[in-house]
Design a protein that fits this description.
Layout (H helix, E strand, L loop, with lengths): L6 H13 L4 H11 L14 H26 L3 E12 H7 L5 E8 L4 E6 L1 H11 L15 H21 L7 E8 L13 E11 L2 E10 H4 L8 H26 L4 E4 L7 H5 L17 E5 L2 E11 L2 E14 L4
Antiparallel strand pairs: 1-5, 2-3, 2-4, 3-6, 5-6, 7-8, 8-9, 9-10
Helix pairs in contact: 3-6
Length: 331
């Protein structure tokens, strides 16, 4: 950000220019020189600002999904937020993570190549402790995982990858599958050292344990869908997808909804005394004629008009009229 001068500094600068102490041409040359920046070709920026913003939005949703999933799994306070979205060489990413950590290497069909979810040991061991019946306290000294612990961790993060697919659904339908769980970054070479990767860092708190979860997405893997990582496409697809999903869910819920349907043969007004003295075989005169249609209520609304009768020796109704909006009537 450029420095903002105070009024006294502006006055002093104008005085120096007018007296000849400062040369305006020299100032212009300095400004031109300041605009020149050193470019490191080993650290090429392959993701545009627009694409970086789209990645941020996608993974903010992923963070919310992970928070809900981990909260249910560990039954303790969980908070996950996106801390940063950076692009850097893959070699720099490997050097930035601990020598002993949890690396979930996975594929996401139809994308070609492998991606990585790195989980800081503070968080990973707190997860294990919580699942094993503990308070969710991280280990003071980190060690290699046992076979049982490895299987437990694989199950945890296999399910977490379903949330990854859900977060990306507005862009592409992915089918992520855990390939291998590794603990030594030096044994994990998914792309060339100079390949640009997007690293999404999540600040994570599970119980009292805190740490980072880093998601490494190589540019070469995301390259086929890079045109979709624009604000215009992201919002358009999100709106369409959300609309389709809402309609689908509403339809499914309506199909499963239970409602009371009852046919009313008619009504009659009698006194309390007459009601108390009713016996088997007594006849109550209704306000409907034999040939009149009867009301069929769905819930509290009169939705149909019908004629009562028999069908295959069973009491049945023949619908004669459908009342589209439904009518509220007091029986």
């Amino acid at each position: 950000m450029s420095e903002v001068l105070s009024q006294s500094e502006i006055d002093a600068l104008l005085t120096a220019l007018s007296s000849g102490e400062l040369d305006a041409e020299e100032i212009r040359k300095d400004e031109v020189q300041k605009k020149v920046k050193t470019y490191d070709f080993k650290r090429a920026y392959r993701f545009s600002k627009d694409q970086t913003r789209s990645l941020t939005r996608i993974h903010e949703n992923f963070a919310r999904l992970l928070t809900s999933y981990f909260s249910a799994q560990f039954r303790t306070f969980v908070q996950i937020t996106v801390a940063s979205v950076d692009q850097l060489p893959y070699d720099e990413f490997i050097r930035s993570i601990p020598k002993m950590t949890i690396l979930n290497v996975f594929e996401a069909v139809p994308l070609e190549g492998r991606l990585v979810m790195e989980v800081n040991p503070n968080i990973a061991y707190a997860m294990l402790d919580r699942l094993m019946g503990g308070q969710g306290i991280s280990a003071e000294k980190f060690r290699s995982l046992t076979e049982i612990e490895t299987i437990v961790m694989e199950r945890i993060f296999n399910k977490a990858l379903e949330n990854f697919a859900e977060a990306w659904r507005t862009i592409i339908d992915l089918d992520p599958e855990l390939d291998i769980l590794e603990t030594n970054p030096q044994f994990m070479q998914i792309v060339s050292p100079n390949e640009t990767v997007a690293v999404i860092s999540f600040q994570t708190k599970i119980g009292e344990a805190t740490g980072m979860i880093n998601l490494c997405l190589p540019h070469v893997v995301l390259e086929p869908i890079m045109p979709k990582l624009t604000a215009h496409h992201w919002f358009a697809s999100q709106k369409k997808s959300r609309s389709d999903k809402e309609v689908f869910h509403i339809q499914e819920r309506v199909k499963k909804a239970s409602v009371t349907v009852k046919a009313e043969l008619g009504a009659s007004i009698i006194s309390i005394g007459e009601f108390l003295s009713l016996n088997i075989g007594d006849v109550i005169q209704l306000d409907n004629m034999f040939e009149d249609d009867i009301n069929v209520r769905v819930g509290n609304l009169v939705k149909f008009k019908a004629q009562p009768g028999l069908s295959k020796k069973r009491v049945a109704l023949q619908i004669t009229e459908v009342l589209e909006e439904g009518v509220e009537e007091n029986g």
